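Structure in, sequence out. Go:
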């Protein structure tokens, strides 16, 4: 049987891909390095990018719950397959902008969210001049550019109609539901014990905090977007099933930040619905300023230093929660230890900070010994566990101010879009994106998650969705006014 011209080409391409796939598997097995599997993956990525980069974009979100950290060469970790895909989408974005100059609508480029996001990124570039470690900062900025290009600008390009939004949620929620189910089943076999929770979320999550954060941040999308499908449709039934699964995952993650964030999301729903965001932001700002003034006066913060001998890890949930109430929980005390150091650091470098990614090499000289805990040696080289403080330390007052302005602008734009949009489906999208964004803002009070693929992806996606809906609401408002 003879093959036609297109069939011959397809067969040759298939055989070529099969050859590289086999080569990658053999090399990975021989050298015990999974990085060689990137060879066929890159070829597949390149082929899909040429044929249908929009489908490839949705696939990226399907891989977010499934990505794993792989140690490369014993020196650095790579999240596979998401980070190589992000690098690829950065190149795709550049090519699209170069060859299709009108690929991004002018109304998107001139929006305050875009302007502030780019101002924030530009300030990071300026901080490279003043950084204490240029190599670390350059790596940080390159990674940040991948996130912004992939999850913000590419979202503005790909998400054009309602079906695109729906498809994205399904691509994310199906693997997330499957991962959560297997975590719950493994955890159930261990009696849902507190001490085993970190083991059950691996290898897809570093720890229970990252796991619970992704689940909680995805819940608003699952809750509201299911309402955009017809009753009885498989999509509606699937999302109806997924919602309690994710809620159970959050509950059995035993993550205090996720529990609090879910409560905040309920309050935030009514805040958005009744347009109270400005008052909430003002109240939060005044509260923070008063708290800082109270702690700073006569070094009153020293009165809250923990007892080193009593600040220990508690292997059971009851002891963990009781220690939290008594301020003797190890993880909380260690956070305070780093927060105190971070609060002292801007005095020496107030405007540009120590440079992107440079908290760890510097912070120990600013720590206060009375706040030290059993894990203060910090062998994993983690950072301050408060993203707002991190922005202040690494980007100075200007960097932190630009970040806060960006956050406030997104909040106000989301609320404005929700109040002006006409269709129920669009309003559901606005509420889902805004609540997901608020949940992230709560999580980063005690964690540094924006630079992770699990949360950073949705952080920038939420901004893009809110921008799209804000512009749509403006057009609808102008048309109805006319």
């Amino acid at each position: 049987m003879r093959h036609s011209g297109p069939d011959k080409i397809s067969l040759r391409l298939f055989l070529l891909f099969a050859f590289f796939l086999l080569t990658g598997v053999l090399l990975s097995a021989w050298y015990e390095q999974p990085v060689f599997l990137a060879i066929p993956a890159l070829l597949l990525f390149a082929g899909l990018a040429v044929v249908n980069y929009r489908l490839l974009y949705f696939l990226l979100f399907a891989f977010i719950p499934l990505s794993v950290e792989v140690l490369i060469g014993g020196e650095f970790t790579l999240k596979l397959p998401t980070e190589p895909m992000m690098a690829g989408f950065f190149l795709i974005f550049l090519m699209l902008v170069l060859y299709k100059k009108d690929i991004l609508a002018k109304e998107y480029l001139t929006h305050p969210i875009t302007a502030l996001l780019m101002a924030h990124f530009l300030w990071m570039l300026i901080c490279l001049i003043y950084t204490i470690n240029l190599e670390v900062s350059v790596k940080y900025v390159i990674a940040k550019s991948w996130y912004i290009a992939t999850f913000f600008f590419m979202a503005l390009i790909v998400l054009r109609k309602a079906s695109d939004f729906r498809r994205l949620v399904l691509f994310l929620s199906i693997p997330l539901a499957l991962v959560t189910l297997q975590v719950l089943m493994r955890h159930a076999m261990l009696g849902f014990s507190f001490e085993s929770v970190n083991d059950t979320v691996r290898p897809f999550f570093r720890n229970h905090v990252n796991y619970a954060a992704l689940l909680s941040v995805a819940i608003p999308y699952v809750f509201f977007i299911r309402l955009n499908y017809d009753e009885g449709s498989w999509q509606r039934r699937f999302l109806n099933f997924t919602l309690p699964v994710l809620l159970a995952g959050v509950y059995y993650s035993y993550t205090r930040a996720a529990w609090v964030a879910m409560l905040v999301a309920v309050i935030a729903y009514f805040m958005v619905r009744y347009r109270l965001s400005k008052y909430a932001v003002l109240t939060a700002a005044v509260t923070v300023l008063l708290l800082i003034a109270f702690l700073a006066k006569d070094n009153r913060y020293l009165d809250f230093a923990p007892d080193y001998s009593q600040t220990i890890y508690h292997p059971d949930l009851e002891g963990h929660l009781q220690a939290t109430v008594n301020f003797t929980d190890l993880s909380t005390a260690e956070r305070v230890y780093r927060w105190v150091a971070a609060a002292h650091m801007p005095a020496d470098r107030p405007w540009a900070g120590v440079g992107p990614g440079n908290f760890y090499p510097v912070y120990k000289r600013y720590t206060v010994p009375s706040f030290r805990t059993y894990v203060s040696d910090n062998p994993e080289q983690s950072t301050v566990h408060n993203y707002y403080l991190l922005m202040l330390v690494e980007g100075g007052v200007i960097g932190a101010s630009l970040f806060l302005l960006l956050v406030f602008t997104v909040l106000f734009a989301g609320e404005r879009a929700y109040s002006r949009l006409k269709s129920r489906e669009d309003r559901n999208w606005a509420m889902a994106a805004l609540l997901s964004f608020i949940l992230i803002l709560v999580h980063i009070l005690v964690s540094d998650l924006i630079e992770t693929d699990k949360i950073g992806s949705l952080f920038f996606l939420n901004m893009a969705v809110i921008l799209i809906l804000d512009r749509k609401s403006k057009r609808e408002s102008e048309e109805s006014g006319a």
